[in-house]
């Protein structure tokens, strides 16, 4: 895009100041400096580049340079030169100060507008039609399907931190030109990408996992429309919360793979009854229910293979067998019996989801 033509008005009064300084040797007045700052601010708001404006000042300085008075001594010529150069320095410095102030203000306004848009987008606030219009400014077309990935690391991040900038740089280098929005929310890294481009979110997950020193990443399903972004974002957050409660080890979670869990707890009262009836007796064990509940959880995760379960729990197979027998004695259900296994495993999942026995049901 070509640079807009720069108006001579941004140099208004500059040549006059140089001429007066050459005669009087004075410095710029406070009012003159304020005018230079105002002109710099106007130039920034007009979209000009500071480098080009400085070149214009230097060119006019050369053109308006005062001619030496006939018979002037070298000392007098040097004094005039020093005064003019000092005035030029003052004028250009004030102009650049006004220019940079305006740029900083513009940047802050853009950052505030971006943050407001992201908050509205992820919270589902604002008129959806208006939200879709604002989204185009940030590279999103909300009429199409989008999916959201959320990365949670060991610390809270903001957009200016090194980790988000590192992840964003990696994605922009690989997917230049794609309609992607990378930001932070509540200390987590967020990536919003078109739903038909799962490779973007896979790569984000890889980069975010590495940049956050093994942080967990969750990816929501793709949904269409402005409300679809909120839905996908909520799914990703739920997946992270679920992984914490279920002690899932996977570094990258896909909400589509976890749909069975909310289904199991949709009837919370029924699930609570199942946990109490099937696992409640474990609280009679020495040490409480937690060690035996952990044993069951690892046993089912290991495919009900005793040797693998014992290895993961750092137990001997004999000690594991004793625990399984103790569970059978207390609950009346045999973990190794296919008829009992499904009920026990469902109850274990429900216990993890509802944080039992730490919380009363």
Tags for this model:
14 helices; Alpha-Beta Plaits; 3 domains; 361 residues; alpha+beta; Arc Repressor Mutant, subunit A; single chain
Report on this structure.
With 361 residues, the protein is α+β, with helices and mostly antiparallel strands. The protein has three domains: 100 residues, no CATH class; 112 residues, Alpha-Beta Plaits (2-Layer Sandwich); 88 residues, Orthogonal Bundle (Arc Repressor Mutant, subunit A). Helix content is 60%, strand content 8%. It contains 14 helices and six strands. Strands 1, 2, 3, 4, 5 and 6 form a six-stranded mixed sheet that branches. Strand 2 and strand 3 form a beta hairpin. Helix 10 packs across helix 14, helix 11 crosses helix 12 and helix 11 packs across helix 14.
- Kindly estimate the percentage of residues that lie in beta strands according to DSSP: 5-15%
Number of helices: 14
Q: Rg from C-alpha positions?
A: 34 Å
Please bin the fraction of helical residues. Answer: 55-70%
For this structure, the CATH topology of the largest domain is Alpha-Beta Plaits
Q: How would you spell out the order of helices and strands?
A: HHHHHEHEEHEEHEHHHHHH
Largest sheet: 6 strands, mixed
Examine the secondary-structure arrangement and name the CATH architecture of the largest domain: 2-Layer Sandwich
Count of individual beta strands? 6
Family: Belongs to the CdaR family.
Domain CdaR GGDEF-like: 124-241
Protein name: Helix-turn-helix domain-containing protein
InterPro entries: CdaR-like_regulators, CdaR_GGDEF, PucR_C-HTH_dom, PucR_C-HTH_sf
């Amino acid at each position: 895009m070509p640079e807009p033509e720069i108006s001579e008005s941004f140099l208004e009064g500059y040549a006059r100041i140089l001429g007066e300084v050459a005669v009087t040797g004075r410095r710029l007045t406070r009012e003159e400096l304020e005018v230079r700052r105002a002109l710099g601010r106007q130039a920034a708001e007009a979209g000009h580049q500071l480098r080009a404006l400085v070149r214009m000042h230097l060119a006019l300085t050369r053109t308006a340079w005062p001619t030496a008075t006939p018979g002037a001594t070298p000392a007098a010529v040097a004094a005039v030169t020093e005064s003019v150069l000092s005035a030029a320095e003052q004028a250009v410095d004030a102009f650049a100060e006004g220019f940079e102030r305006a740029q900083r203000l513009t940047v802050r306004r853009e950052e505030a507008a971006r943050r407001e848009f992201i908050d509205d987008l992820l919270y589902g606030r604002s008129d959806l039609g208006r939200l879709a219009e604002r989204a185009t400014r940030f590279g999103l077309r909300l009429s199409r399907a989008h999916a959201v990935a959320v990365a949670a690391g060991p610390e809270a991040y903001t957009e200016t931190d090194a980790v988000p900038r590192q992840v964003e740089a990696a994605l922009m280098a690989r997917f230049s030109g794609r309609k992607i929005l990378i930001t932070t929310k509540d200390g987590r890294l967020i990536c919003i990408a078109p739903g038909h481009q799962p490779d973007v979110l896979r790569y984000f997950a890889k980069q975010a996992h590495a940049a956050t020193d093994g942080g967990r990443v969750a990816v929501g399903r793709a949904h269409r429309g402005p409300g679809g972004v909120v839905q996908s974002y909520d799914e990703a957050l739920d997946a992270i919360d679920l992984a914490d409660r279920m002690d899932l080890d996977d570094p990258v979670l896909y909400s589509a793979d976890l749909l069975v869990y909310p289904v199991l707890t949709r009837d919370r009262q029924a699930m609570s009854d199942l946990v109490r009836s099937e696992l409640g007796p474990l609280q009679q064990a020495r040490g409480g229910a937690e060690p035996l509940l952990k044993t069951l959880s690892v046993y089912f995760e290991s495919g009900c293979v005793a040797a693998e379960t014992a290895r993961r729990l750092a137990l001997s197979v004999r000690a594991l067998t004793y625990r399984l027998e103790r569970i059978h004695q207390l609950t009346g259900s045999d973990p190794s019996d296919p008829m009992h296994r499904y009920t026990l495993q469902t109850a274990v999942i429900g216990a993890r989801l509802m944080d039992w026995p730490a919380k009363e049901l």
